Amino acid sequence: MKTALLFPTECKLHETRAGHPERAARLDAIEAALRETKLWDAVQHRTAVPAREEELRLCHTPEHIARVRRMAETGGGSFDPDTTVSPASFEAARLACGAALGAVDAVLKGAPGGVHRGECDNAFAVVRPPGHHATAERAMGFCLFNNVAVAARYAQRQYALERVAILDWDVHHGNGTQDIFYEDPSMFFCSVHQSPLYPGSGAASETGRGAGKGTTLNFPLPARSGIAEYAEVWGQAGRALAAFKPQLILVSAGFDAHARDPLGSMNLSASDFAQLAKTTKQWAAQLCEGHLVCVLEGGYDLTGLGQSVAAVVRELANGS
Ligand SMILES: [Zn+2]
After folding, report:
1. What is the largest CA-CA distance in the chain?
2. What is the rounded distance in angstroms from the CA atom of residue 221 to the CA atom of residue 225?
3. Cα R_g (the chain), whole angstroms
4. 3-317: in CATH 3.40.800.20
5. Per-residue pLDDT tens over the stretch 224-276
6. Residues with Cβ within 5 Å of ion ligand 1?
7. Which residues of 226-241 are buried (b: 16+ CB within 10 A; e: fewer)?
8. pTM of the entire structure?
9. Crossing angle, helix 89-108 and helix 62-73, to 10 degrees?
10. 14, 60, 132, 133: which one is catalytic?
């Protein structure tokens, strides 16, 4: 398998306040883990370019984009106590989003109509700030732009895909992604998350609206759930996914459901994340020529984060 890695180190320039769990050291921990396991040399490194304004507009209002830009240009500020903007944050956030788009290109470029294999089998964009809480017009929960949502829409526009799926295993509900695509039958969104927990949305009864009814799926799980509970609902997600017939699968890959994580209270290990990735990779092989893109979301214990990303990358790069 050829796995693309997009790892824009300039994403580290996005600063948060002292003691904030979403910090530049997260990327250092991931790089160290990938180097230690030699996976760093086993993947195809691809350079990310910042998402352009018109690409951000695929999912965000011009007002929201301008607000983030202005806040950064005037020395920084905050949307809420958790979601801050530093002078470099606009560029870092554009780059994070651009890396997600580059990951889509890695698996779909050279794949006319998205029906043949691209240059890589799958891809992982290791980025910050994360994205899945950002709505079309609002930054929240450490997220400025919704990287995975923009990537999904970009895949539809750039590669003429009709159906794209986003699976979100971050410990928090992907409220922003859900909100952006809630009435859109061309986007399948499934979130498995701890409940109750921030941001409070993601009840099983939230299944989409209007034409999008049925293409949103939520699996709230109680604290202390482990791989048995995850595997059960992931299997249910897979059956719905098969019925949807996606042409590309994106994963909002957060690692804050790791047992060591300070924000989540779940019981997953690095090898459990690898198991979820393996299952997802099998679905991608069966349903969409293996087209699979992971985009980093949360994960705040540096050891758990590094080990888990390495375990998932190893699974993605694993032969056959
Ligand atoms: Zn999270």
Report:
1. 50
2. 7
3. 17
4. yes
5. 999 999 999 999 999 999 999 999 999 999 999 999 999 999 999 999 999 99
6. 170, 172, 254, 256, 298
7. ebebbeebbeebbeeb
8. 0.97
9. 130
10. 133
Instruction: Work out the number of other CB atoms within 10 angstroms of the CB of residue 53.
Output: 13
How far away, in angstroms, is 149 Cα from ligand 1 center? 16
133 is catalytic: yes
Q: Single out the residue of 145, 49, 149, 53 nearest to residue 99, CA to CA.
A: 49
Task: Name the percent of the chain lying above pLDDT 90.
Answer: 95
| Entry field: residues in the chain | 320
Bridge-based pairing state of the strands 164-168 and 122-125: unpaired
Please give the mean pLDDT across all residues of the chain. Answer: 96
Smallest CA-to-CA distance from 297 within 151, 147, 176, 89 is with 147
* Residue that has been written with the tokens 């400025």 in this structure: 144
| pLDDT confidence of residue 109 | 87
The string of pLDDT tens digits covering residues 199-210 is 999 999 999 999
pLDDT in tens, 291-313: 999 999 999 999 999 999 999 99
Going from the Cα of 297 to the center of ligand 1, the distance in angstroms, rounded, reads 6
**Ligand 1 centre distance from Cα of residue 190 (Å):** 15
Look up residue 191 and give its two tokens.
């979130």
Cα–Cα distance list, 87 to 68, 71, 299 (Å): 10, 8, 24
CA 256 to ligand 1 centroid distance, Å: 6
Token digits of residue 72:
């950064």
Distance 119 CA to ligand 1 centre (A): 30
Contacts of 319 (CB under 8 A, 6+ apart): 1
Report the alpha-carbon distance of residue 58 to residue 273 in Å, rounded.
30
The one-letter code for the residue type at 129 is P
CA–centroid distance, residue 261 to ligand 1 (Å): 10
CB neighbour list of residue 212: distance below 8 Å, 6 or more residues apart: 181, 182, 183, 184, 185, 187
From 40, 114, 46, select the one nearest 291 (Cα to Cα): 114
Query: 232: CA distance to ligand 1 center in Å?
Result: 21
